[in-house]
From TrEMBL:
Residue ranges annotated for the Glycosyl transferase family domain, each copy included: 21-104
GO MF annotation terms: glycosyltransferase activity
Name of the top EC class for this enzyme: transferase
Record protein name field: Glycosyltransferase
Keywords, ordered alphabetically: Glycosyltransferase, Transferase
The protein's Enzyme Commission number: 2.4.-.-
Length: 105
């Protein structure tokens, strides 16, 4: 599946050290404006299946971003998360300053 945004699974990288994310989780970090064409919905929908597998039961998708010039897709994304009981697997972190993002690499 092609996803039009850079997503990476991190387990023990700077994201945990700098942002106090749990080290016992597999982390997918999505960064960008919460607009439809970014594909956040595709990752969230995939989590419905992935988190059912023992290998990915501890997978958490952290979304760093807020509304963009094309609107704010957050309401729809949060509705899907609630509807599919994915609250333990999706975290809406909100806007993050570019300077903070630099510390992740």
């Amino acid at each position: 599946m092609w996803i039009p945004i850079n997503f990476t699974i991190w387990t023990k990288l700077n994201v945990e050290r700098h942002w106090d994310y749990p080290s016992d989780k597999q982390i997918i970090l999505g960064v960008g404006a919460l607009i439809h064409r970014k594909g956040f919905d595709l990752v969230i929908k995939a989590l419905s299946t992935l988190t059912q597998q023992p290998k990915f039961h501890n997978l958490v998708f952290y979304i760093l971003g807020s509304e963009g010039a094309e609107g704010d897709y957050r309401t729809e994304l949060k509705h899907y998360v609630m509807e599919h009981n994915l609250q333990e697997h999706v975290v809406f972190q909100g806007a993050v300053a570019n300077q903070q993002l630099i510390t992740l690499v």
